[in-house]
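Batch 3, record 17
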Amino acid sequence: MKKALITGITGQDGSYLAELLLSKGYEVHGLIRRSSTFNTSRIDHLYKDPHEPGARMFLHYGDLSDGARLVTLLAGIHPDEVYNLAAQSHVRVSFDEPEHTGDTTGIGSIRLLEAVRLAGIQCRFYQASSSEMFGASPPPQNEDTLFYPRSPYGAAKVYSYWVTRNYREAYGLFAVNGILFNHESPRRGETFVTRKITRSVARIKAGLEHNLYMGNLDSVRDWGYAPEYVEGMWRMLQADEPRDYVLATGVPCTVKEFLETAFDHAGLDWHDHVKFDERYLRPTEVDSLIGDASHAESALGWKAGVDATQLARIMVDADIAALECEGSAWIDTPLLPAWDKAS
Ligand code: NAP
Ligand code: GDD
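Prediction for the assembled complex:
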């Protein structure tokens, strides 16, 4: 039985990756942060009491800011594959918390790579790199495109990208960067734009909200479906040779187009509900990300199947269903917590 360690297992991608690896027969270990409230809602359905026979998912407290803990964890688990998905992953928030973002999204990666080296284990290593690294470089972007990050988050990911390559070249580690374009799902964090929109559509449809406050509607993104992207991560670690790959749909979509599709799908007109609020603008914006994933298709046989239009419909349906299911408990929850209005 292969063993995998996933950092960021409580996030969107971590939860889908854990599901995928369990379905393939892996023993899955996840790094989770100690929190005063539960932060495992995305993986609770996968959890079995470790005392029960057949339990194959194990959670361990730790943090990417704690290098010594990463060493003891790796030495204890001896994973065959390590997926580094943990990060402060919100671009707008990285302007508010640049130092913390650098410490976790950037330095956190080298702490984990160094822990692999110090623990003396043989494993394959996946680094969650991002299309945000391309920033101001014009599309289409592929593995050869120049990095020009436009946020502290993007700059931290560029650092992580290069240290991953450096450990591959310096120490012969099978370490790869998956340069993933935006990917979404019903499990997407509520302050990323797609989920903010689809969650609001469900609440407007139910008569719980009337207005949705948004920032720049003109930026172009290449939005794919998260469960397909974690399959791509896994394939990168099964390849014969370590190399870096872009995963993307290749289909451009503006924030406005995503809005239109989501509202239309629920029988609503977005012009009646969407208002501008400058607090959602970023000091520097990434105007256009459109990926070219042809290397992943030819070398890994990976190709995106779901585009932004289908994705918007999947997410609206899921948010409407969740609202109906959760009834009054959900209805009492405000659209966004007051303190998170700047995201
Ligand atoms: P996400 O939902 O925001 O999940 C982030 C995960 O990282 C959570 O499990 C979070 O734990 C954990 N984390 C944050 N800081 C940590 C720390 N200091 N130590 C340990 N764990 C920490 O992100 P995602 O969308 O799944 O993305 C996964 C990875 O891919 C991230 O690195 C992201 O930057 C990158 N990426 C994402 C996309 C995308 O479109 N989704 C595209 C390209 C790259 P808590 O649950 O406790 O907060
Ligand atoms: N979050 C948010 N909230 N974004 C808004 C809003 C708003 O109210 N209004 C407009 N936008 C615009 C942003 O300015 C940006 O151009 C676009 O919507 C997408 O924003 P996000 O959904 O926050 O994602 P992102 O593209 O900045 O970053 C995501 O994708 C990266 C890959 O390219 C994150 O998942 C990153 O972690 C990931 O690396």
